[in-house]
Amino acid sequence: MTFPIGAIPGIGAAIGTGGVAGIDSTAAVNGTGAAGGDAFSSILASSFDQLAATQANADGLAAQAATGDLKDVHDYMIARNEASLATEMVVGIKNAAVSAFTEIMRMPI
Amino acid sequence: MIGEITPAALHASLSGLAQRQRVTADNIANINTPGFLAGRVDFESSLEGALRNGETPRINGGTVARSLEPTNTNGNNVNLDAETLIATETGLRYQLALNALDGKYNSIRTALRTS
Amino acid sequence: MAIFDTFGISGSGLMTHRKWLDAVSDNIANVNTVRRTDEDAFQQRMVVAEAIEYGTGEGGVRVARAEFGNAEGRLVYQPDHPLADEAGYVKYPDIDLGDQMSQMIMAQRGYQANLAVVERATEAYKAALQLGKG
What we know:
Oligomer: heterotrimer
Strand order of the largest sheet of chain B: 1-2
Strand content of chain C: 15-25%
Shape of chain C: elongated
Helix content of chain C: 40-55%
Helix content of chain B: 55-70%
Distance between the termini of chain B: 20 Å
């Protein structure tokens, strides 16, 4: 079972270097931000897709646990933990992006 | 992103397992009662059927039937080993279902956070 | 569920050992059951255990059948016994109490061992439920 953090290298790199590729370019601040904005939104979109997949996997195993068909309990526990971590990561990125945007909008021009 | 069927399925599982726990306690209490037939709870059949059809499962604690296994000389068919194992298994599955529901709610709560 | 398969397997072990214990207690209870010399003696009851799906690791054990011991018994001279024949003999079962006692200990040990497996499987399951709690 692949771990979500490893599967989304773009976001990992962005957080590691302390800046998101798209947002800290002046093109994004000016609002025209075509190239920078697209890079960030596509990163966010792909992470949402993978998040949906991990959530669906965890939900499927939860349904198996409910009916008693679950073969190994640790399969469900691992899937649920991965889904939670992926959720937290995506939500963290979204919140950081929103607060960064708010900061930028507050800057006197 | 968040299906509504999963929490309902887990809720149905929890009430079915709680019913099974009660019926097992009843069986063990009546282990020496003449003519007593062990009770069996089945909620998995209707739960699986509902999930297969994509419907929301009904939460009614399952159906209770009397076991038709062979009885001993005084008409009692409660098997202590089987009941003990059922009790342990039911307890563990109950913990798992609670854990699953907890994880589901935490997931939703995390997604709602704004900071 | 893998852990619950363990429950089924240990459960079959528990029931088989309990049936063994039942047979042994039946034999011990009837160790002095006297019969006439022209009837069969009380026969020792033995349970035959058989592995389910031998070797796959997912099987268990069951009681395939019961076997009965020697019907000839021992002839004992007890002329005052109401069931004695003209020569004064009655028939006692061919059961060795020492043998039955050691079987009883083995059956009990086997039962306890299976119970220990159930307990370990329960602990493992509960530990798995703690995954991610830090």
